[in-house]
Amino acid sequence: MIPLFQASHRDHRWWEAWARWMRADLAHPSDFLRRLALGWAGGTIALGVIGLVCYKLGLDAVAAESIFLIAIVLISLVGSFTMSIGLCIVAVLYIDFFFIKPTLTFDIQYKQDIPALLTFSIASLAITGLVRHVRMLGETQIEQARLLDLTHDTVIVRDMDGVILFWNFGAEEMYGWRKREAIGKIIHTLLKTRFPVSLDDATDTLLRTGRWEGELIHTRCDGTELVIASRWSLQRNGNGRALATLETGNDVTARKQAEQALRRSQATYLAEAQRLSRTGSFGWNVWSGEVVWSEQTFRIFEFDPHVVPTLELVLQRVHPEDVERFRNTIGDASTHKQDFDFEFRLVLPDGAIKYLHVVAHVMKDEPERLHYAGAVMDVTEARQAEQQLHHAQSELARVTRVTTLGELSASIAHEVGQPLAAIVTSGEACLRWLERQPPEPDEVRAGVMRMVGEGRRATEIVRRIRTLARKDTGQKVPLGLNDVVNDVISLTQREVLSHQVPLRVRLAPLLPPVLGDRVQLQQVLINLVMNGIQAMDGVTGWARELSIETGLTPDGNVRLTVRDCGTGIDPHHAERLFDAFFSTKPHGMGMGLSICRSIIDSHGGKIKVFNNEAHGATFQCVLPPLAKEAA
Length: 631
Ligand code: ADP
Prior knowledge:
Beta-Lactamase; disordered N terminus; rod-shaped; alpha+beta; binds adenosine-5'-diphosphate; 5 domains
């Protein structure tokens, strides 16, 4: 039997009060003795009365012994152990006095009465001891039950059919049903239990391991739902048969609500931060194909939040030119179980373009079930700003080119004027040859051929100038750097001559082509040539010369060098030379070198400057050859 059940069924109040009174307080011996004397005197009188009545009724010794035994059992039930033993001895004396011959004396006439008296003594003492043992057991059970009532946790015992056998004060407080209302009811019906797993699974675990714990939802008698952290322990008898389940539980409703509120507020902050940073998050289970998006990701892709996100859905919006790259990048990454990080464009239903940057990290904790966690950033504004900047830069470059053309106007006029003058001269000669008698057609043909040649030369010069003034510069194409140099020489030759600067050109034969924008590279060279000429303007103390050279660097790059014998670079200015708007010239814009550097950078090359040993400065541009670029 399980002690707890017994304790719960009985109403022990009078019993407890009497037992408490009878249990002498050993800390106060006088109190103990007083109670012992009182009980003993009362018992002695009661037993004396019983003896006298039995004597008067003429009962024999055996009948009287039975009655005395009953009296001793009753006294043992309510009295202390010490007093009960004392009264056993008193009972033996009474039996001897009233019923053992000669009666009304304590003498014993027949020896055979002695065993009978001894038997009574032993029986009464044994009963007293037994009653004491049972009483102590009962008191322990009461104590245990009282302790279980002290805890705030619920303590419930139910049998294997779920019938409630014990229901502590904590359970009364928690659920609102009194003991008498709950005991005998089926627990999960009474509390409308909702389980995190099925009841069968929980019972299975309980029977296998002897324990189960989990969070249950119970309903109070007023209908309120509570989240209870519940722990079950199985009680078995000596044969191992399951007898009952002890359920203890505590209310975690407030904690759960606080956790939920925290989770909700964290989710709100996260969603707001994602909205502000235009960054959505996603999860992609490659194994199952399942895709999970945050609110912001739906917003970025401009899909309804109720749509189930899939990779195919994303592909519907990917820019047609980016679809293949998108598929390849994601396909390669998932095949090799690698992270991915790339940019692609979306075309939205209204035709708008969005630039997205996606980064994803492969979760390697479950190698069989590959999945990614990632972020997708809307970088449209940044890309648009970059495009605008690029546009502004090329516009500025064009303006400076046109400005340079203005500075070169004398040279250009001379360049165009020369073939025109030659055409006029040849035309006049042709007329003269035609007027001769007889006319000289061969001379005329030669003259016309010269005119055509000069006309072509003039057209070519005009074409170059128009190209330089054009708004959009052409695409990068394979071109020889020597050709670029020749183009620029023809445009600047006159300028060089008018400043009386000897020009030395040394072009390396068999120079590998570079991938370049002809106009932009011409602009670089024109800037360097014009700066060189200007740097030598006031120089009189030493020989002046401008040299343009092409060649190969030891590591196979193509090199363009412009060397002057001017004033050289002031070391204080060296750091800022390539900065925009840095100029030491009274009417300088300070954009020339800055544009040169951005052009050379965009060609994958480098531009540097150093002072010559004797006089002047050298600007050197190094560009990768086409073969290297392609590799
Ligand atoms: P700008 O010619 O309008 O001043 P640049 O960017 O072309 O703008 O040149 C910036 C400055 O670099 C010039 O003002 C000048 O001080 C210096 N510089 C450029 N080229 C040379 C050179 N060959 N020799 C000496 N100084 C130079």
